[in-house]
Each structure stands twice: as C-alpha cells, then as structure tokens.
Amino acid sequence: MFKKVLIANRGEIALRIHRACKEMGIQTVAVHSTADSDAMHVRVADEAVCIGPNASADSYLNVANIIAACEVTGADAVHPGYGFLSENANFAEICGEHGIKFIGPLPEHIRMMGDKITAKETVKKLGIPVVPGSEGGVDTDEDAVRIGAEIGYPVIVKATAGGGGRGMQIVRNESDIVTAVNTCKTEAKAAFGNEEVYIEKFLEKPRHIEFQIIGDQFKNCIHLGERDCSLQRRHQKVLEEAPSPVIDMETRMRVGGIVADAMANFGYEGAGTIEFLYEDGEFFFIEMNTRIQVEHPVTEMITGIDLVREQIRVAAGKKLHYSQDMVEFHGHAMECRVNAEDPFTFMPSPGQVTQYHAPGGLNVRADSAVYSGYKIPPYYDSMVAKLIVKGYTRDGCMMRLLRSLEEYVIDGIKTTIPLHIELLHNKDFQSGDYDIHWLEKFLDAHN
Ligand code: ADP
C-alpha cells in the first residue's frame, strides 16, 4: 500500500481524500495556493506545501510544482480529486515518469474519454447506446447544414473538449446552424484550446442518469448502480439522488451490467462514471468522466462502499474488494450542492463565514472544508459544502434532508440553502417527476 499520498486539490474533496487515507493508515500531503494557507485541508494533512499564488493556473494546475512537492515530501502517489488536473492525461503521464502513482485510470484511457467524439466512438464499439449525431467532428459550413438536416432539429452543437456544462449551443432551425457551429468553435478554441465540435440530437425531456463503475488492474469491473442528476442549471448539477425515482431494479442491473462488462473489456482501472440521457425508457450515452465525481457520496450512502478507499486500493494494485453480487442497495440518498451564491440569482457571494454549524444525526453527512471564521476566497469554484442524507424511502430521505437544511448554519455569506429548501417543498420535485429542463423553468417562474 502507498505510504504517503499527495492530494492535488482543495476544499471538501481534499478533506474527503485525506479522510480515506487516514482510515487506511496512509500519510497525507496537502498542497495549496497562497490564498488557501488557512484552508482546512492544509490544517489536517500531515504535511503541507505551498505550490503557488492564488490563480489556479499558477497553483492547483501547476504540474511542475506539484511534482516537486511529491519529490520533496516523498509522496508515492497523487490523488487528483475532481476538476483541476483530474482529467489531464499529460499530468497522469508525467506522474508515471517520475515514479509517482496517479490515482486514476491509465493516461490513454483519460485521453480517449476526455475527447467526447472519441469517447462516443469507443463506447459505441463496446456496445453502449449513444445519442444519435454526427460521426466525428463538423468541419465545414456545408457539413453543418447537411448533418443538421440528417439528424433533424432541434440539435445541440457541442465542443469535443467541453466540460463543466460549457461549450454547448442548442439549435432549433436550420437557419441558425452555421452561426451556432462557428460560435461554438470560437468559444471552444478560447476555453479548451481545441475548436473541434460535433452535433447531436437535442433531447427535449430527458433525465440525466449516470452509472458509477470501478475497475481494477485485473480486468474486473463492477457497477454501483445509478445516480439521477436531472436537477441542473446551465447544464450544471444542483441536487442529485440515488437511486433514480424512475429506474427499477431490473433496468439498473441490466444497464449497469452492460457498462461494467464494457469497461472490463476495455481494461478500465479506477472509478468512472458513464453518463446517459434517459428518455422514453431509452438510454443514450453522452460522456464518461474518468475520475471521482462531486456526487459520489449518494452512491456511497446507499451501497455502504467507500469509493475513494476503493480508488486508492485498486491504484495500489489490489483486487477490487467487492464482486458484483456483494453490491447491495439500501434506502434512498440525496445530495444538495451548497454554493456561496445568491440562492436565486446565483451571484457569487465569497467572504467570511462568521458562524458555521453543520447538521448531524443518523444518516446525515456534511462534506465541507468550511469552519467558523473561514474566509471563502473568490478565486475558485463556489461550491462550499455538500449535504448528503439517506432515508429508508425517498419520502423519508426528503423529510430528513429538509430538517438538515433547516439546521445548517452558514452565516456571513449567501448560500444556495434557501433554494434547496424551496425545492423540497415543491410538489413536482416531491413526486420525482422532473427532467433536465425542469429546474430552469422553476427558477424562471420564481424570479
Ligand atoms: P459537460 O461535460 O460539460 O458536463 P455533458 O455532455 O455531460 O457536458 O452534458 C451536460 C448536460 O448538458 C447534460 O446533463 C444535459 O443536461 C445537457 N445535454 C448534453 N447533451 C444533450 C443532448 N443531446 N440533448 C439534451 N441535453 C443535452
């Protein structure tokens, strides 16, 4: 097993990884920017190294300084968390060249899935259904018009290197396709350094349903069921639940089995998520994330499996601790992403947290690196906490989530807690009858 893991991240996920390491008897190294010298992950880690100034590009994305921090501290592995360098194949490769184990899949698998066009082609060959769309990228204006007509409007133009809900344009009429493709290319070039775009059918009322998988170095791969992440704003997830209110056990095991077998054949190592849009009983692959995800705790709550621990174990060359028939699902879990933002306009609200008190009680988990007196820096993601609860039933879960949200004290800044409370009072949300566009309509009606 590893002796020392360097955590190449910040915030709640850095703390989450630290916790898994300590429970396995592994020493931890925190890295941080100057702005984060007072951060909780820095306080709790066994060692801490400053890797650069405030801007992420100079610190959390600074490969040379992170590798140097590994060498100085003698860390034998790096956990990248999510965001930052977690899906950077070059970083994974450089770690390998320095004899440091990157806790994640092989660089070539990260690269393949990081390009959405290649990812779609790859999973299609492995027998996974994909959203109908262009075969590969769209080069010329003529191609755009022809492909748009073939697929049928509405369509969505997407950047192959896109992420974080950015680099997407919905097109409802042929007259707009050429402009949309060109705008998307320019934006993709600026944001991701790759202007390639593709077109796919725009689904009008799907749910976002994703399967958690984990594989080891011996071609074993299992699935841990699905998460429903249909509550989104600007293609970004706001609240997630597991299991999905619309997926039955037969479907879960059938589709989960297909993705786990496909990834076993592929030789996938580590944790991964296969994302689908689900409409009229059919699944359509959109992308794969080759890292731990923000919403992984809802799966942990209903399976009892520590995903970060498993990631570390398989990276160290151990066999998966679980076979598929050992994975059992109990109860229902939901996660609220708590952002330092106005709950309805989403204006960022960084600043000092004057009072912090997390809710507790049976089956309540608050993953956060915030503490009383902590100053939220304005340079990074606005998510400051995740509140995850489990109930025996979906209704029980909602009751517990509501009382936990009402107990949560984060004073001094605005947070999205009031939005979550309103959602939990909403009849459509309570019934489980919502699609990926529902939250935006709810917010329009509210504002
Ligand atoms: P990102 O990598 O930026 O998260 P994804 O490809 O995962 O991008 O898509 C994010 C979200 O965008 C989806 O959950 C869904 O809400 C919306 N979306 C993506 N593709 C389509 C599509 N073909 N039809 C309708 N909505 C889509």
UniProtKB/TrEMBL annotation:
- Pathway info: Lipid metabolism; malonyl-CoA biosynthesis; malonyl-CoA from acetyl-CoA: step 1/1
Q: Reaction(s) catalyzed by this protein?
A: N(6)-biotinyl-L-lysyl-[protein] + hydrogencarbonate + ATP = N(6)-carboxybiotinyl-L-lysyl-[protein] + ADP + phosphate + H(+)
Which PROSITE patterns does the UniProt entry name for this protein?
A: ATP_GRASP (PS50975), BC (PS50979), CPSASE_1 (PS00866), CPSASE_2 (PS00867)
GO BP terms: namely: fatty acid biosynthetic process
GO-annotated molecular function: ATP binding; biotin carboxylase activity; metal ion binding
Q: What is its EC number?
A: 6.3.4.14
Keyword annotations from UniProtKB, A to Z: ATP-binding, Biotin, Fatty acid biosynthesis, Fatty acid metabolism, Ligase, Lipid biosynthesis, Lipid metabolism, Magnesium, Metal-binding, Nucleotide-binding
Q: Which residues form the Biotin carboxylation domain?
A: 1-444
Question: Is Repressor given among the entry's keywords?
Answer: no
| SUPFAM superfamilies per record | Glutathione synthetase ATP-binding domain-like, PreATP-grasp domain, Rudiment single hybrid motif
Q: Which Pfam families match?
A: Biotin_carb_C, Biotin_carb_N, CPSase_L_D2
- Keyword Calcium annotated: no
Gene3D superfamilies per UniProt? 3.40.50.20, ATP-grasp fold, A domain, ATP-grasp fold, B domain
Which ranges carry the ATP-grasp domain?
120-316
The record's subunit annotation is: Acetyl-CoA carboxylase is a heterohexamer of biotin carboxyl carrier protein, biotin carboxylase and the two subunits of carboxyl transferase in a 2:2 complex.
Q: What does this protein do?
A: This protein is a component of the acetyl coenzyme A carboxylase complex; first, biotin carboxylase catalyzes the carboxylation of the carrier protein and then the transcarboxylase transfers the carboxyl group to form malonyl-CoA.
The family database entries (PANTHER family) matched by this protein are listed as: BIOTIN CARBOXYLASE, CHLOROPLASTIC (PTHR48095:SF2), PYRUVATE CARBOXYLASE SUBUNIT A (PTHR48095)
Name the record gives this protein: Biotin carboxylase
Which source organism?
A: Temperatibacter marinus
